[in-house]
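Summary of Year 1 activities. Much of the first year was spent building the evaluation harness for sequence design. The harness presents a backbone, in tokenized form, and records the residue chosen at every position. We chose the following record to illustrate the format because it has been used consistently in internal testing since the harness was completed.
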């Protein structure tokens, strides 16, 4: 007999018990009295002692954030999120947050129920019922065919998020990958400007769609930015940004199915759209530039990400505009910042020339190997993809992952003259 710790609103207990009876065979369910109680009891148990089920809650932390936090704690045998009317976007977000299974309560038959034991762990009356044989074990979502999602964020403006995301998309395209750059700085994003990309990709237009946007509707928002690079977003009008917030998950889910790599540029603040992206991310890259306020902004972003349920092992730190003559500042990864497990990358300072080239739409040219800025972005990208097991079979990608330069160093001055 296996034991499950459960947290949900009282009105959802019966449905959740039925779901557990279908999911596992021969189980006992114990109700926690709150979010903290659930996490504490699971953490105090033996590793793998409890399965955890989180159902619809009437108040407090959102259900998916709680389930993701328990998954991130790492002591549960498995974590199940149960909701009514589950969408594909929710399943994708949950999978990327480390949640093992999402159950649609509206699809659970009436007969099977788990047994609820009264006792010190139980927050409500027992629900006696015969245990019904069910399928064995947990069916894990298959996301092996989806593209990795890399989300670039920071707690300050002007640190170079857009430059890094744009050039990384171009580098990936040069390696033969189909890259999609999603601009979730919905009000003031300018990622497409780095390519001089024409055409419209107004994410706010999704608000006119009845229900969940279909692939054809989302595909129309993909703008060709450069060879092998497509761009989506932001909103045409800053005042319409709020209309696009609910659709961020659907946009990223679509992009992850259609492309080989998804890079997400974000706003300085964590809007609902950025929070969805963070929870779906395979890697959340927090960018700093070493200026005054860097430590505090990194600390705020990392703390917020962890509260959203992002696993610490999915967080990376990127030190932009680094001086190759100086050592990496590992102080930013100290435990109180919440980045003790984060890998640190460095992108070398491209100085004013990089800004000039991006503002003139030359991101693809800037990504050519041989420039210190481009080479360090390539190394950062290749090593992340290697961690995820998605490094493409390409000589430049392999050299970048090894941290070796791909050729003679070049000067940006020639490109800068062409931009004028």
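For this record, the design step produced the sequence shown next.
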């Amino acid at each position: 007999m296996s034991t499950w710790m459960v947290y949900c609103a009282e009105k959802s207990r019966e449905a959740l018990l039925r779901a557990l009876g279908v999911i596992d065979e021969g189980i006992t369910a114990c109700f926690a009295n709150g979010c903290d109680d659930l996490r504490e009891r699971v953490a105090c148990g033996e590793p793998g002692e409890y399965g955890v089920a989180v159902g619809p809650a009437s108040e407090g932390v959102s259900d998916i954030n709680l389930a993701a936090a328990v998954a991130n704690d790492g002591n549960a045998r498995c974590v199940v999120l149960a909701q009514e009317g589950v969408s594909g976007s929710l399943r994708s977000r949950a999978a990327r947050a480390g949640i093992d299974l999402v159950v649609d309560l509206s699809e659970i038959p009436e007969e099977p129920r788990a047994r609820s034991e009264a006792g010190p762990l139980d927050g409500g009356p027992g629900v006696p019922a015969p245990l019904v044989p069910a399928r064995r074990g947990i069916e894990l979502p298959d996301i092996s065919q989806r593209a990795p999602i890399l989300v670039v964020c920071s707690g300050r403006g002007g640190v170079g998020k857009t430059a890094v995301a744009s050039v990384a998309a171009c580098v990936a395209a040069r390696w033969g990958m189909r890259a999609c750059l999603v601009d979730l700085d919905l009000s003031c994003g300018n990622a497409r400007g780095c390519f001089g990309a024409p055409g419209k990709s107004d994410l706010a237009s999704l608000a006119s769609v009845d229900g969940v946007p279909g692939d054809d509707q989302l595909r129309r928002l993909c703008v060709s930015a450069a060879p092998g690079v497509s761009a989506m977003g932001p909103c045409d009008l800053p005042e319409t940004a709020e209309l696009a917030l609910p659709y961020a998950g659907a946009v990223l889910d679509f992009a992850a199915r259609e492309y080989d790599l998804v890079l997400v540029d974000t706003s300085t603040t964590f809007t609902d759209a950025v929070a969805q992206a963070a929870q779906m991310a395979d890697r959340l890259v927090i960018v700093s530039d070493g200026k005054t306020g860097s430590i505090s902004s990194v600390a705020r972003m990392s703390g917020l990400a962890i509260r959203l349920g992002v696993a610490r092992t999915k967080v990376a730190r990127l030190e932009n505009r680094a001086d190759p003559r100086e050592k990496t500042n590992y102080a930013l990864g100290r435990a109180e910042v919440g980045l003790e497990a984060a890998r640190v990358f460095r992108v070398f300072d491209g100085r004013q020339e990089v800004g000039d080239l991006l503002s003139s739409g030359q991101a693809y040219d800037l990504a050519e190997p041989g420039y210190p800025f481009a080479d360090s972005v390539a190394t950062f990208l290749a090593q992340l993809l290697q961690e995820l097991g998605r490094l493409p079979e390409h000589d430049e990608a392999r050299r970048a992952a090894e941290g070796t330069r791909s050729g003679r160093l070049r000067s940006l001055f020639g490109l800068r003259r062409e931009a004028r």
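Residues 372-387 form the longest helix (16 residues). Quantitative recovery figures across the full test set are reported in Table 2.
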